[in-house]
């Protein structure tokens, strides 16, 4: 079964065929780095991480680009308000690039904890001003943008008049959008139409982030950045562009308009893929509601909306249990269930090597019934193939996860019955074990997280040591000393008790 993906642009599932096989170009809208990443910021990277892993498994050579927005993202979608990064810098009395660097590092650390593969290219908007100016000049040369008081705006009505369709990605109708706009929108005096959006904004005297341009000192519009960077690293036409559903309009809609209005017209990506939104305890995540949760708060147990800390792999598995196009509600109950499911899969990994080794010893080719072997082998092989079939179906991770649990259930039943295990060929069992590992670790990207705390284990070992000394069980004393020394820990008996130190050998 070929891989199919739901294309927001066409509103249907389509067989995925790369434009230039085996190469695949992927672009994901990254964060605006003015604050710590929140839970919603993790869903898109996890979805695209699984997609990237699966495409590579299928033999494609993937170039994965995920940007960093460090300038130009204003508070309002209508080109009003402060730059989000500038506002954070002012509040913290820092240089904007200090803020950007700090939160970029924090974002990368959080995604590493979530076991998301790093992108092949991670361009920053502030490092691509030249490309953005060039793109503006191309759009102006086609008469689809205009300068106004030092700023440059995209001319949506003129774009429409040329037979192009603003709103085709999101399903918006220009006439309805115009009817819903307010005449008093900020900056309206600069625009010819309320729908026009900024490609370049003139910098106010107090604005810290500014660059020279043919229209004066200013900074690029948020929508322009992704068009310029995706085109630079993936070309005017590439395979897949992704992001959250909240970015479909106006951000991605404006990207398509800019791409179509450039010197090399086209929508940019052939497939536009959007992940759905996250709610917390049934409500939209919001600071005013008190349920806004950053990734670091969740991992450290500092989120007031949750009763405890949850590990990165628990959160990753929680997201994988829902289809990327479905909304998902996060709660203590859902996360606790996800933690249990994740640990079951990890226990399955621990079981595999033992089972494969046991099957080699138990199988007796002379006494096994060939028909029975064939039946059992086919059953195990069928279960092992199911997860990939579901991933082929628009990256259906919840059904793939369910199929992995079906396979694990069968493996557990075999492990509990040596007689049943003997009726499965070593080749079939090894194939099923390899498929299990492939899906769980390589494709779903789940990895083992130690649950034990080293300090607690050391304290336990010291208590056993003291107990052995009290009982004068010197053989156990020597065993504990040797075991700890093998881990780089030496014990010292003092007048006040037992102390430990790192071995200096």
Furnish the topology, listing elements before pairings:
Blueprint: E1 4-7, E2 12-15, E3 23-28, H1 39-57, E4 61-66, H2 84-92, H3 96-113, H4 129-141, E5 145-148, E6 151-154, H5 156-161, H6 174-179, E7 197-202, E8 218-220, H7 222-234, E9 238-244, H8 248-260, E10 269-275, E11 278-280, E12 283-284, H9 295-300, H10 312-320, E13 328-330, H11 332-362, H12 370-392, H13 397-415, H14 418-422, H15 426-443, H16 454-470, H17 474-486, E14 489-494, E15 497-502
Parallel strand pairs: 3-4, 3-9, 9-10, 11-13
Antiparallel strand pairs: 1-2, 5-6, 6-7, 7-8, 11-12, 14-15
Helix pairs in contact: 2-3, 4-7, 7-8, 10-11, 11-13, 11-15, 12-13, 12-15, 13-15, 16-17
